[in-house]
Amino acid sequence: MIVTRFAPSPTGRLHIGHAASAIRAHDVAREAGGRFLLRIEDIDGTRSRAEFIAAIEADLRWLGLTWDGPVLRQSTRLDAYAQALDRLRGMGLLYPCFCTRAEIAASLSAPHGGPDGPVYPGTCRHLSAAEASARIAEPHCWRIDMAAAVARTGPLRWHDASAGDIPADPLAHGDVVLARKDAPASYHLAVTIDDAWQSVSDIVRGHDLFAATHVHRLLQALLGLPTPRYHHHPLLTDANGKRLAKRDGAPTLAALRDSGLDGAALAERLRTGRLPDGIATASA
Ligand code: GLU
């Protein structure tokens, strides 16, 4: 059974890039007689807003998309994330990190860039157990000791429909955060657990999340979860080749709807690559 999902974070209104991604995920499932799921990634309590959740559903319906079963909200799944964190902690792979953003920035004399920005220099990995437990009442996140995790899993691979067979390279990300100071799980942990829990067979999402898949593949191996097939698609850009982003004023689906545009017609254009004026497909 082919199962796909669209998994937006309700931190703003959807734009045309989200629409293109949701349509692809929807169509991959529908063409195979499979299931298409909607999951709301709302673990970031400081940025997620209920009004955006309602808007996401309205926008998808306007495009003519339907989803199967109830909408899953990640905020209802905190016990599952806590259990996974306990398992990883039990394997000796997690450590508490007390560093502030400013401290991390200051300690990176020559910032070592990873696929998703600067790589954490590992400061708190070197704390003794006694030092860490003496500070545990201070605000902290939990990081994975990536070198230890990779030593445990050995080499891993994953498959992308366009890029082919990929050797996983989670080490390039360094000791990523799995539980945040302000949220009980990070994106990496929650997405990996929920894709497995919902039996998602094919992950259709933008190329901006290609590199994150290395981390997800590692977590699957550590937690004994299956590895889905991946379909990372090119992002949509503006006329200058800049990725569409709400903060840069990309037109929201709500604005397009209010301007009288027909949602089903827009979806058809996106399917056939007839992009609206001023919108292009990124080359990578
Ligand atoms: N929630 C993520 C986002 O809105 C996407 C998750 C995913 O497709 O893996 O960027």
From TrEMBL:
GO molecular function, one term: ATP binding
Family: Belongs to the class-I aminoacyl-tRNA synthetase family.
Protein's UniProt keywords contain Protein biosynthesis: yes
Coiled-coil parts of chain: none
Protein's GO biological process: glutamyl-tRNA aminoacylation
Stretches assigned to the Glutamyl/glutaminyl-tRNA synthetase class Ib catalytic domain: 2-254
Pfam family, one: tRNA-synt_1c
UniProt organism field: Sphingomonas panacis
Key word Methyltransferase present: no
GO cellular component: cytosol
Name of this chain's protein: Glutamyl-Q tRNA(Asp) synthetase
